[in-house]
Amino acid sequence: MQALHLIRYLADMTSSSPPQTACPLARTLELIGDRWSLVILREIIKGQHRYSDFSHCAERIPTNILANRLRRLAGYGVVARVPSRSSPKRHEYHLTSKGAALLPAMQALARWGGDQLPECYAPPEQFLALTVEELPTRDPD
């Protein structure tokens, strides 16, 4: 019986059914509120663009979760999946303008963590000084 509930839960997560809420905070958290999505976006901001780059970051994102999050972020237009220049069989991930617009929220969360969580280091000034306009983006044509 538990397996059936799990299957229904997973189906609900991937279905294209209407959202459960119109609350912007709740909907945003559905997209980027998991443990990994903002880490992926942080890595892209740092200049990492390949799947292998993300899988080797300090947080060691499990590969099945990484693939899922990249698909979801691309599906919502937060990142663009583009063929790699070095190998057309491989892809790179770049911020779109929608993804770049998350920068101020990411900076605020990093500041809060640095200020309020004693086990965290202060966020790098270089990151906090970035502006949305400075981030390279690739929007779909």
UniProtKB/TrEMBL annotation:
UniProt protein name: Transcriptional regulator
Lineage: Bacteria, Pseudomonadati, Pseudomonadota, Gammaproteobacteria, Oceanospirillales
Span of domain HTH hxlR-type: 23-121
Coiled coil stretches, renumbered: none
Family annotation (SUPFAM superfamilies): Winged helix' DNA-binding domain
Coiled coil found in the keyword field: no
Any Pfam family matching the protein: HxlR
Keyword tags: DNA-binding, Transcription, Transcription regulation
Species this protein is from: Halomonas halophila
